[in-house]
Amino acid sequence: MICLGLGLMLMAGCGVHQTAAYTDTKTKCIGSELDGSYTLRVAGRARNAADAYEQAAKQAVYDMMFTYIDVQSGYHEKQIKPLLMEVNAVSKYESYTAKFLKDGGDYLKYVSRKEKRSLSSQYMKTNTQTVCITTVCVFREDLKQRLIADGIIKE
Prior knowledge:
Elements: H1 2-13, E1 28-32, E2 37-46, H2 49-66, E3 69-71, E4 79-80, H3 89-92, H4 94-100, E5 111-112, E6 122-125, E7 130-139, H5 140-149
Parallel strand pairs: 1-3
Antiparallel strand pairs: 1-2, 2-7, 3-4, 5-7, 6-7
């Protein structure tokens, strides 16, 4: 009986262990303001915590541009539509996006951490990466106007 119990514990310990550092963490909208800004809960991945934090801000802008963002329950909308909804938009605007989202790039004008509460960021570290899950505010309407001015979105 004891051997059976030990055998079961050993087999249970051999299962796959997943942490947030390995799973996909989808960006979620947790709030919106009347000024056209959205508060997002987003993950960034990098080699260290500071870079992961910055990657989270870049990911928030990228997702606002290219992906549907799920809205946490309690709001009228269920998803926020991406600003660029055309087919193959990611590859079509790859060079624009790379320049826009580079370190210290113009994307910083369209994000804020004003909605972030102290100690609300979560960090998970593995041997190869750090994942930061944090809160970022994206000024969607301002970003949209920038994309219109740059000729990316046609009015």
